[in-house]
Amino acid sequence: LRKLLQEGAEGFVVGSHTAEFPALTYLERKQLLELSVRLSPPGTPIIGNASSQSTASSIDLAQHAGGQGARMALLMPPQDEYLTEHEIVDFYQRVSNYGRLPLIVVDPQCKLDLMTLTKIGRLPGIHIAARTSFVERTTSDEFCLEHMTCAPIRLFGEIAPQVAASLRDLIRSY
What we know:
Layout: H1 2-6, E1 12-14, H2 26-39, E2 46-49, H3 55-68, E3 72-75, H4 85-99, E4 103-106, H5 114-121, E5 126-129, E6 143-145, E7 148-150, H6 161-172
Parallel strand pairs: 1-2, 2-3, 3-4, 4-5
Antiparallel strand pairs: 6-7
């Protein structure tokens, strides 16, 4: 973290969807976030990953991230392919209501259709960051935020200054 800050990083996504966060226990994920907050200068924007297979665990991870000083939480859709649209929207609504942090929804595997994303995006405190096919230069490590591409691991870095500025403004508004 210190090296990235010295190189100009302005904030961090801790345990983003490009990391191997599913291989970590919930305790390890919480410890990683705590360490990131502790090693970052005061006021550094931190986004914690609250993605998990259960609503209760995602709420717990979001609450923990907020309690540690994270500004927002990253949340992917549950990996259960048998959930209905209503159940998926309900998942996001519950995590938003009880997680006590604004959410950035990422869908790196493009599991959510446009109708579901639209319904999720109408929920208060939720911002959509969805992969889109019209962006030619995205890699598996990139996603779109308001029709702009950024790499979450270098979210505030040199790769996409306009996206970094847009996301920086979004985070500062919370």
